[in-house]
User: Fold this.
Amino acid sequence: MIRYLFDAANAITALGLILATTAIYFALIGRFEIGICFGLWALLADDADGMIAKSSPNRSALMAQLGGTLDGLLDLVYAAVFPAVLILSFNAFSVPALLAANCLILSGALRLSYFSTFGLDADGFGRGLPLNNNLFVLALLFVADHHLPVQGLGNLLIGAGFVLSVLHLSNFKFPGTGSALRLGNLTLAAAGSVALLTM
Assistant:
């Protein structure tokens, strides 16, 4: 099994999983801003592995198939499990936070399973809000709370968990791939990281 990590794209995906796990660690010990930064860096690794995979023409079909499955697991961990853990930890593991966390993880797993089975629309668009936007929402809420303290940030996080869960499974169109989307992710992840680390 380990030999499948001797592939540039899969190695980047594995690095993304390490970053995502580190993000969960920081959320559990209450260092939420640092955790979000690690989540954003996992997002960048997720973008990078796809670009590397596409630029590797001699990659075997089996390597690509395993890489696709590994990539789906990375998506779930950094974009659904980590935000769920952060919401739980920030709210002292309350019942409403547990409900929001369950909704986030279930909607994330269902969304990823759907697109793994059916793929994007013929025009290259997906449906609903991609999971990686969870990280941008978390970053925005914590940066806003630092500069203009938000009353009841914990409740806002819980509410965001429920709203994002609905948006992930909605039917509106959203760009599924492309250089503009990757550039947007890079810009937002970099800006979010700088803002969180300089607070």
